[in-house]
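Lecture notes, unit on protein representations.

Consider one protein chain, 346 amino acids long.
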Amino acid sequence: MFGAYEIGETRYQQAYDRYHTLGEWLSRENSAIKQYAPSVYAQGSFALGTVIKPYTDEEEYDVDLVCELKNLSKVQLSQQQLKHITGREIESYRQANSMQKALTEGRRCWTLNYADGAQFHMDIVPALPNGAGVRLLLEQRNMDTSWVDTAIGITDNEVPNYTLITDDWPRSNPKGYLEWFKSRMTVMLERRRTEMAKAAHGKVEGIPDYKVRTPLQSAIMILKRHRDIMFEDDQTHRSPISIIITTLAGHSYQGEEQIADALYNILFKMDRFVLWDGQKYVIPNPSDPTENFADKWEEFPERKDAFFQWLEQARQHFTAVSDQYSRKIINERLSPHIGRELAKRA
């Protein structure tokens, strides 16, 4: 429905093929990390099915990946060592594929920059398994452990113990988060997949997740585009981050079958899931409740203010067309806030 703002299937397949090729390279016979069972998989909006096209031609798709070395543990090496052994193999992949742009190191990841025509780059986070450690931590605090088995330890060159062999690593769990997110839309996901299979006279299991679009995913994509336009000229990085929008939308979604109903309920329920613990705002990561997605709000209160300003603006803009049946009026009222093409399709 919202093809003009979704990533095209060709572009998605291109990114999918590239990171699978990277995974195969890291597992090749003479790879220096083959013995550690490297596994490369997507995280973030590519995994969640909420990717939207870059707002301008100058922007790129940010394909977030994890490179998990499954046969390593935190007692065997430091974050720095893990990052460097992974980086060397990613660099050899870059050279073998004659990629002209240099491999660059970020705080937590390595970035592979593809040729300009590709319009995407890959941020690859080195990681190792951390399920047992996170389970113990959550059990000690009587917190939910439903998604803990896929937890990982990741690298961060700004933490004090980056160069030390220690049990204290930054944590993440993108697979757990993905499973939580899918659990919020299970009924519609399977219904849409079944409908697509019938239309194609094929089997349900032959329809991959990335080809299915639920009302929850579509609503998140619309809200992210609204955010992009509202903060187009913002130079202070106040724009609400996608993981907060996605998490609050996931909590708020109640299985609505229509995108309009999903949007309305999400917009008017999502702030209920912004918690206050008496000292600060908390938006827990569903896959690791010790992580607070709003942790920067205390240090940068302008980000908290920007979130609530954006939410109020979105409520006003979408409520203004909720009782309209005229396509022309809906288009005129929504175009400045989500773009003309998306307004026409909506």
